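Quick one, T. Sequence first:
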Amino acid sequence: MDIVRLLGGLGNQMFQYALVEALRNRGRQVYCNLGLMKWEGARPVLIDKIFKGVYLNEIGDDAVNKIYNESSHFLANRRKVFEEICFEDVFFHKDVFDTKDCIFTGYWQSEKYFADCQERIREVFQFSCIPDEVIRFGEELSKNTVSIHIRRGDYLKHKEYAVCDEKYYKDAIQYIRNIIPDVQFICFSDDKQWMNKSIELRNEGITICSEELFSSYCDWYDMYLMTCCRGNIIANSSFSWWASWLNKHKDKIIVAPKFWINGWDIPDIWCDNWIRM
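Structure tokens:
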């Protein structure tokens, strides 16, 4: 029996759940524990409500604590590798599948973890309950629109995060324009005020997606709409990573920043056909 602990926002939860499906694909019995999501300030667990195919098979904290005690030998050898993976080791570890009866705590931010079950992951992460007006808006985006994701917010409070600057977005926009001359851009951001003040980006004629465009709106509709676009300029964010990965356009163009975390070169997080700038 294996347990995968969920933590972080929606994009991180998706990576963790992708590991769940990768383990199940190997014939293993896997549960999800939400104990880390109960801390003050933790993000809500919505992954099983947003996507049609997610089956958490939840296990409670008491059972996890019991397994921690029974698995002390394994944890003594492995916790240093996986418990602090976000800050000390964010590379792909192919040996995570070698040991059974594990508690997995980490972010697992690489397509390589689920390389052998990608179609299953796409099936699982089909959006549910998208309003008709949002679907219609997404259909318009599929023609020649490329999304831009700007992530600032909490990133400004953590020095380890590399906040993408105006030069990155300007270079990415120009790269896309060289390929799609009649391209339109739409921006999704957690800091629309900064976007509005950015003279460099404002002069590019970018449409800013806002909840005011719809009668009702949820934050995760941003991800859905980004998947509809002809291409994506992403931030160093698991949210827009997944939007790009789930984008079904066969000729999609994905531009990504070179650095995910300050001071780290993390080649495993990027997909092979993405353009890094």
